Structures are given as structure tokens and as C-alpha cells.
Amino acid sequence: MPVSLRLPNDDDAPATASAWLERLCEQRQLDRRTAYQLTTCMVEAVNNAACYRDEPARGTIVARLYRGRALWVIQVIDSNSQPPVAAAETPPDPDQLGGRGGFIMAAWMDAVRYRRTGARNVVTLAKRVDIGIR
Description:
Blueprint: E1 3-8, H1 13-27, H2 32-51, E2 60-67, E3 71-78, H3 101-108, E4 111-117, E5 120-128
Antiparallel strand pairs: 1-2, 2-3, 3-5, 4-5
Helix pairs in contact: 1-2, 2-3
């Protein structure tokens, strides 16, 4: 059963999503590195939805977390008309102001997928985790 967060598609969405996932990682005693990577990648996906939202802003962003013993899957769903920034396997130009989120997601997650379902963008992030005492 997933745990979900629904938030307005606005500039506060990334910070709200970050605090939510940090609490969930702490409750499950994820190691700090894994928790940081999961949170950073989810925040990148939420930030992309918020930064590239349609104007005027439409709808909400939904974050879903599916927690297993060895795999966590996060979905970030928005109703923007354009797709989010794609994951990139090559490093961005160091002089470029943005565009690092896709590279970070590809580097830190075991899988990154994007699909368009109806009028929604769905970004799925998956990472193997080691639940245990820090």
C-alpha cells in the first residue's frame, strides 16, 4: 500500500515534499546516504513539475511512495501539459545554470522512468535500499 502526498503545484511543493520524505526515511531508519539520495531525486522531480507548470498553475502534484524491504519506488505525478525534464546519462555542461537534476536522478536511482498517462506526467524513481540500524 503506497503512502501519498498531495500538494498544490506551486513554488512551495519541493520543500513540502522534501520534509515529507525525510520523515518517512527516518521512520524506516534508512541510512543517511540513501535517504539523501531518495529525497534529492524526488525533490528534483517535484521541482521540475513546479518549475515547468502551466500558467496559470493547474492542479496538484502527487507523490507516492511504495516501500518494500529492499526496494523503494517513488512516483511524482502532475497534470502539466509538457513532459518533465528527462533523466540524462551524461554530465551537464559545468557552465550551465540548470539541468543537473536529470543527471543526478539517473546517477543515484536504480531506475528512472517517465510516461504520459492521459493528461498526466508520471515520473517513477526506484532505488534498492538496505533497511537497518544506522
